Amino acid sequence: MAIGKTSTNVPVLRWGFLGAGNIATDFANDLIKAPQYHKHQHALVAVATQNSRERAAAFAERYKNENSSPKAYGSYEELLQDNNVDIVYISNHHPQHYGTVKLALHAGKGVLCEKPLTINYPESLELVKLAREKKVFFAEGFWIRFFPIVKKAQQLLHEERVCGKNLRLFIDFCQDSKFRELPKDSRMLNVSLGAGVLLDMGVYPLTWSQVLLFDDPINQKNDPTVSSNALTFTDHNGDVGDYSTAVTLVFPKSQAIAVLCTSMDRDPVTQDFLRIDGDSGAQLIISGKCFRPQILTLKRPDGKSETMDFSFDATGFFYEQDAVFEYIMNDLNEASEIPHAETLRMMRLTDQIRHQLKISYPADIQFTTN
Ligand SMILES: NC(=O)C1=CN([C@@H]2O[C@H](COP(=O)(O)OP(=O)(O)OC[C@H]3O[C@@H](n4cnc5c(N)ncnc54)[C@H](OP(=O)(O)O)[C@@H]3O)[C@@H](O)[C@H]2O)C=CC1
Ligand SMILES: O=C1OC[C@@H](O)[C@H](O)[C@H]1O
To answer: Element (H or E) spanning 321, and its range?
Structure first.
């Protein structure tokens, strides 16, 4: 895969955006307006929306400066013909990810796609096969996997075994999306646009359970047994989505257990969203937001505690953005923080949970009837 060069011959990764919505704004702000956090050079060279060049131009205008002048396109197809684009960042709605990623891969572009990669496992499997056939960089943008705080928590738990064995993980991720008050075509309320707490927010607690318990060496990569239940809503089309979902995971090999609750109808009463303990009597607590962890506190059995501050004031995409730069610079097509197999395993897990919840999406029908 190609990578650009600045006028002083410094490598620069040239991004094209497919989607100009809310998270695209946060991603662009970190990419272009937080250079103090970057190790590498990045440029936003093109922005496309599905149907409006004007909307793309208005988005691009916000990121014009002496080094960056993004081109605006009124369709994804036009942007994908732009040879100045090294990699595309896809940030439309979950049900659109499958078709949009497919379009970009067929155009020979590297792809970083927002989470969840797709609505279900069959869609993700098809995209992984296509990306490997095209021999381009491809990853699900599960950005917290690139945070140093995750790597530190894994080192404390898996190498230093500060909590011992028989780990118990508790996560409460809640955020009041006020979904019932939103317009009926909001992505948080319209099931056809992917509404539902599991795939939008629940994938974060599930990711924490994977990096802290599934990846624990004593688990030896054994899948957990899963049980789940949910409170649901019905949208204006009569489709059912989940708004508060509880999942328990048991890891028989390591005798570990995870209790995860994700709700999109209330805000948290504490910043401590994650607690883990084991048979050592110590506790690890992570504070901040489940999707933006900032502080790690280790409480030792003797009552002493140690706090590690990983806070930053940008959104936090810069870790992921610099990692993608390094993979493409080194001609690597997968991110070790979230290899294709890990995305596929997570999609199988969310499919398994949705089957238990009896929650389905239009995309599921496409694959079950084929
Ligand atoms: N990593 C993170 O922290 C976060 C990730 N996300 C993920 O990003 C994705 C987008 O979320 P968010 O930015 O909040 O979404 P937005 O509601 O801002 O919409 C994003 C894009 O989706 C397309 N879109 C919007 N409404 C419609 C519609 N009614 N019909 C068809 N397409 C539409 C548009 O694409 P276009 O501009 O091309 O026309 C729009 O720009 C989701 O998959 C979500 O999971 C969301 C929030 C945080
Ligand atoms: O990925 C996300 O993280 C933060 C939440 O507010 C958002 O709904 C979700 O898509």
So the answer is: helix 318-329
Q: Does the pLDDT of residue 66 top 90, yes or no?
A: no
What was the pLDDT predicted at 366? 67
- Cα–Cα distance list, 288 to 50, 247, 269, 274, 294 (Å): 34, 21, 12, 9, 5
Cα-Cα end-to-end distance for the chain: 34
Report whether pLDDT(80) > 60. yes
Q: Are strands 305-309 and 138-141 parallel, antiparallel or unpaired?
A: unpaired
**Alpha helix locations (H) across 174-219?**
197, 203-209
Nearest bound ligand to CA 27? 1
- Same domain as 302, residue 186: yes
Ligand nearest to the CA of 201: 2
Q: Which of 187, 200, 203, 320 to mutate to test the pocket of ligand 2 (most atoms within 8 A of CB)?
A: 200
The per-type count for the chain, helices as H runs and strands as E runs, is 11, 15
Q: Which domain holds residue 26?
A: 4-142+319-333
**Is residue 108 included in any domain, yes or no?**
yes
Residue appearing with tokens 């020979």:
108
Q: Does the Cβ of 145 fall within 6 Å of ligand 1?
A: no
**194 CA: nearest ligand 1 atom:** 43
- Tell whether 172 and 261 lie within a shared domain: yes
Q: Give Rg (Cα) of the chain.
A: 21
Which mutation among 114, 197, 206 tests ligand 1's pocket best, with the greatest number of atoms within 8 A of CB? 114
Give the nearest ligand 2 atom to 201 CA.
9
Kind and range of the H or E element at 284? strand 283-289
Percent of the chain with pLDDT over 70: 99
Q: How much is the mean pLDDT over the chain?
A: 96
Q: Is the CB of 235 under 6 A from ligand 2?
A: no
Q: Residues 6 or more apart from 228 whose CB is under 8 A from it?
A: 245, 246, 247, 248, 353, 356, 357
Q: Distance (Å, rounded) from C-alpha 191 to C-alpha 136?
A: 32
Region 236-258 average pLDDT = 97
pLDDT for res 177: 97
- My answer on whether 159 and 305 are in the same domain is yes
Q: Does residue 317's CB lie within 6 angstroms of at least one atom of ligand 2?
A: no
